[in-house]
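Here we describe the complex-level prediction in full. Unlike the single-chain runs in Section 2.1, the four entities below were treated as one system.
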Amino acid sequence: MADRIRVTVWNEFRHEKTHPRVTAVYPEGIHNVIASAIEGQPDMVARTATLDEPEHGLTDEVLAQTDVLTWWGHMAHHQVTDDVVDKVQQRIIDGMGLIVLHSGHFSKIFRRMMGTTCNLKWREAGEKSRLWVVEPGHPIVDGLPAYFEVPHEEMYGERFDIPAPDTLVLVSWFPGGEVFRSGCCYVRGKGRIFYFQPGHETYPTYRQPEIQQVILNAVRWAAPKQGTEVVFGNVKPLERIEVQE
Amino acid sequence: MADRIRVTVWNEFRHEKTHPRVTAVYPEGIHNVIASAIEGQPDMVARTATLDEPEHGLTDEVLAQTDVLTWWGHMAHHQVTDDVVDKVQQRIIDGMGLIVLHSGHFSKIFRRMMGTTCNLKWREAGEKSRLWVVEPGHPIVDGLPAYFEVPHEEMYGERFDIPAPDTLVLVSWFPGGEVFRSGCCYVRGKGRIFYFQPGHETYPTYRQPEIQQVILNAVRWAAPKQGTEVVFGNVKPLERIEVQE
Amino acid sequence: MADRIRVTVWNEFRHEKTHPRVTAVYPEGIHNVIASAIEGQPDMVARTATLDEPEHGLTDEVLAQTDVLTWWGHMAHHQVTDDVVDKVQQRIIDGMGLIVLHSGHFSKIFRRMMGTTCNLKWREAGEKSRLWVVEPGHPIVDGLPAYFEVPHEEMYGERFDIPAPDTLVLVSWFPGGEVFRSGCCYVRGKGRIFYFQPGHETYPTYRQPEIQQVILNAVRWAAPKQGTEVVFGNVKPLERIEVQE
Amino acid sequence: MADRIRVTVWNEFRHEKTHPRVTAVYPEGIHNVIASAIEGQPDMVARTATLDEPEHGLTDEVLAQTDVLTWWGHMAHHQVTDDVVDKVQQRIIDGMGLIVLHSGHFSKIFRRMMGTTCNLKWREAGEKSRLWVVEPGHPIVDGLPAYFEVPHEEMYGERFDIPAPDTLVLVSWFPGGEVFRSGCCYVRGKGRIFYFQPGHETYPTYRQPEIQQVILNAVRWAAPKQGTEVVFGNVKPLERIEVQE
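The structure predicted for the assembly as a whole is:
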């Protein structure tokens, strides 16, 4: 148990309570669907946290016990306090993994980590999407086919205003004519970040096996490594210095 | 004149007014030394802006007329208003270049664009530094030798908490035993960012020809390209969509 | 004239002589269409070279006078001698630009520079392709729209077995359901390499203004920079070394 | 046993037989020192292969059973047959890991995978080297300090003519005044490649715990992932295509 990857599944959890169409798809909330998939893995353990909990459920204690944080939000990004964003950022720098899902592209924490607007094109037409693997040796696509489809999704299209990913793993095709960098890996500080495009709230995308597989693979990829200790600040020289006048 | 690169040289301009040792080195202020070098170029024109001017000298009008912004700050990073940082960030996303100098690594705007702490090791011992070119075909090192030295500098050492540069151009050697990624290129939005390590306020580093050459080359590299128009938001499909139930 | 970018447009020039359908589209040869576009620019000068010329038209003298080499080949990649490939590789390392077009993905020189198979999926169905700009600030897309279409093209689809591009500029959408990294930038040695997907021999792709614009922009981007001198081999220390026993 | 990472430790094994100074340091051969370190791990199993064995010890059967190949060579790079290099390249593309050690920078297989000359500066003065971690969250530096030293090493200095690493993990400092990108990660095809600078044959570098730790970490990092199946060649469309005349 002690060696399991500790995942905190964060969800805004508003659409599910206020939009009947979303309630119908995710009566238990998006977070509980994702957490269930994680709990089914022998090497992971999940907890959930939501916007309306005190400190959005992300207390110092919870963050300290989180190896990987997944993030879904949409209508209330602005209600996440800057204080919590500051703490999550520092935890990522210190090694915590972050998996940003779908409309989380506009979350404060993703924009904070990217330094850009994270803006994009979008369309809600219920069209399908096809995700192509462009890096077939990457652990995030372990066990997946060369491409897979989501039957109904919101379209996200380029230009996606992100820094060029450290590794681009997936590119999506949409019937309406667009493409999108839909699986993007970053390293920031000691932490790893993965952005994954699918997951509109009106479709049961997170119940789809391929989608769950990518998220589970991403949890393993983003789990903190031991790495090295990091030392900052004023230091003495390691060698004798001779300063020339 | 209309086609010249319009450079705004920003300087905190506090050390020069309060620290006699710095006043002795830069009586005219660091910004005026850099601006003079730029003004000497046929393809550039410079203006300066400093912290204590209204809006730090970075009004909407000034920013709109700036192609490349250079940034030196140290003791008063926190006094730069978030409103100005927001505007500078947006201008970079829209294509303005940013050249961050030395202790500007801890500036609000650089940390904003990087998404990390930008922390590092440091030591003020007056030791020299030797900057090695690791990308000899890069325009930022046009006309420079395979390495060059700064006689007296503050040491900055790894770990430097930045995203891995899109292009790493220079790596520094210090006599005390450290190394540092001292010339780092990034693209963010349509804008280009260059971080350049040398420039401690107590040494006449910005008067050194090689240092000026790197800054001038970086101005040319970071100058906005025409590029393409960027469209965000809700869009209609470009192809006929057939949605399967 | 002396300051113009000297472009050598290389073409296998076999299809045009043996396939009537190709002859009809490019009676003058693909190379001459591209060379004409280059000759129309005030800052460029073009020459052509083809497979069946002595040394494939790439003598030491020609290579020494080439700033940027463009490469189209398809049915006779294996007939390019290794000796010429060796020389072109060295010129790239020394700073010459290389623009690889369409089926040139399987050329000896591109595979040599990439280190991978450069294999991909393909289909000849005359379908259109839509090229999306993912890096809107990049000089290779200067003046282009956010996307542009080629009315009829061979489909190339992922997985494209290349090293992750240093900069990915364009991603293509195909009606048959595929995506492709269709504009890829690399730096190798002091040289710059651009791979550009469109250009099947049975369609007049190289007569299309947007395609010509990308190639012209790529020539400017790939033109050699002065950079720094490169020193290799055995060297004396720059500092006094004290070896501890 | 079946799940262990199968490592083949390749060594030129000439210096050890012909240079008394090297024989004194590595009487058993460099390969056996590295293989012993690997054999001491519960998750790895090692075999060795050397230049003078038939097919250099790298038969089809051996390669098929190799998850990660480590490579040390120096005086006889040219004696490695192109046929074996071809096979090793294909295995890497298919997912095998490759760890290139020290003077292996000039091996046929490393130059093949890089596409560049892999040239550098060097000096044999017995000086120490200090390796700085620039990516402290990377698994290749798991459990290592922020820097570590090799008491006596051959100096390798920049410019190192390699493609910019996909991830730069280590940068070395040398007392004589040079720096070097000494720990470089690449992905090529489905395979992972790590170049690691230390290991001159006249010093017992491979007996040093930190060096062994990096190699063991690199073996785990480079071990093949399942990834996805890769499909190349002519394909049918996945969607109905309407071609416009």
